[in-house]
Design brief:
The protein is α+β, with helices and mostly antiparallel strands. It has two domains: 2-168, no CATH class; 180-368, 2-Layer Sandwich (Alpha-Beta Plaits), CATH 3.30.70.1230. Helix content is 59%, strand content 18%. Strands 1, 2, 3, 4, 5, 6, 7 and 8 form an eight-stranded mixed β-sheet that branches. β7 (344-352) and β8 form a beta hairpin. The longest helix is centred in the first third of the chain and has 32 residues, at 11-42.
Length: 370
């Protein structure tokens, strides 16, 4: 039932929800920590009745909902709005601007939730003039500064999480947190090695600064197709991108093939942009293969999720063979046998002995039909 409901939403929506919810959970857990510690410290009594609000079950429930929603709001702003707004800003300027934005948001949230909590505490005997006076005194008290400090701590944890998640990737970070790959596991995975054509000549022509900007735009246009196909980026290696899927995600609806086709379409829509800005339109070729890999955490100075298996080497070699056959996409027989074969134009290229291998591999060229 839950799986069927999830399938009704787009992969992008599900991904965004998965990225935003941890912000709400961070705020909720830190909020609980502060609420309970204060309640224990004062014995859940109003030391200063002029501004204190006793933490009753209704107040605790109300505060929990508000804190969670405030965290979700921070997550939405951080991941869907601000993440792409400050790309060209220095770190100090970026942090300063974000702090000002979130400070205004926290002040507004306190201004709404505090009088509402006071209203809940007073119940049917409420007096708006008393609530207004209590709110003003609260904003002028040291308790307000303490509350602001607590929220700032939650915000700091969220920004730290956001920075780490952005650099490692949400799925990788989640795997580290859950310990999914603390011990190596065997998985069936699909790998796509996608390489830019004539990249050396393009780099020489543009120079390293402009070439870097081109790569940024080039990688950016791939994001939506990769997300929509349920894939994830394993590595960026120069102008080469390695995308991977678990078999159960990459095979249905030919997601792995459609990812390649959708990237082609995205690039076609931006041809004028690339030509106007860089004087060249990048094109690419790819190799796709499926097989078993051992997946686990590896590294002494820097941890990362690592895949080991012949499937990676074979995918890379197939990508290199694209030039020999003047095609853009080559897939292995192992993958082709499990795809929906009625949705693409496929041509068998024959048994090919790939570089570094002794046994021939049956491969196909694929021309997506959309």
């Amino acid at each position: 039932m839950i799986s069927d409901m999830a399938d009704r939403f787009s992969p992008k929506f599900r991904r965004n929800v998965a990225r935003v919810i941890p912000f709400g959970m961070i705020w909720l857990f830190t909020g609980w920590m502060f609420l309970l510690s204060e309640a224990l410290y004062v014995g859940n009594e109003n030391i200063n009745s002029a501004i204190d609000i006793r933490v009753t079950p209704p107040i605790f429930a109300f505060a929990s909902v508000c804190i969670f929603l405030l965290g979700v709001q921070v997550g939405i702003i951080e991941t869907l709005v601000l993440q792409t707004r400050f790309l060209g800003y220095s770190f100090l300027r970026k942090i300063t601007l974000k702090f000002v934005i979130y400070l205004l948001m926290m002040l507004l949230a306190i201004g709404i939730t505090y009088p509402t909590a006071a209203l809940i505490e007073m119940g049917s005997s409420y007096d708006l003039s008393i609530i207004g006076s209590k709110t003003i005194q609260f904003f002028l008290s040291s308790m307000f500064l303490n509350t602001l400090l607590q929220l700032s701590f939650s915000l700091f944890l969220c920004l730290l999480y956001s920075a780490v998640s952005e650099n490692l990737g949400h799925n990788v970070l989640l795997s580290f947190f859950t310990g999914k790959y603390n011990r190596p596991v065997v998985e069936r995975r699909i790998f796509m090695f996608l390489d830019m054509k004539d990249s050396t000549a393009i780099a020489e022509r543009l120079g390293h600064d402009q070439y870097f900007k081109l790569l940024f735009d080039y990688y950016d246009l791939m994001s939506a197709p990769i997300i929509n196909s349920l894939g994830e980026v394993y590595q960026y290696v120069g102008d080469e991108v390695v995308v991977t899927w678990k078999a159960k995600q990459g095979l249905p609806k030919n997601n792995c093939i459609n990812c390649f086709a959708d990237i082609k379409q995205s690039l076609k829509r931006k041809e004028d942009y690339f030509m106007d800005r860089y004087g060249v339109v990048p094109h690419f070729k790819a190799g796709l293969h499926m097989g078993e890999v051992t997946t686990g955490e590896i590294g002494a100075l820097k941890k990362e999720i690592f895949f080991v298996g012949d499937v990676l080497n074979t995918s890379a070699r197939m990508q290199e063979m694209c030039n020999n056959y003047n095609v853009d996409l080559i897939i292995s027989n192992d993958l082709y046998a499990e795809l929906d074969q009625n949705t693409h134009n496929v041509q068998q290229l024959g048994d090919i002995v790939l570089k570094g291998k002794t046994q021939p591999t049956i491969v196909f060229s694929v021309l997506p039909m959309h």
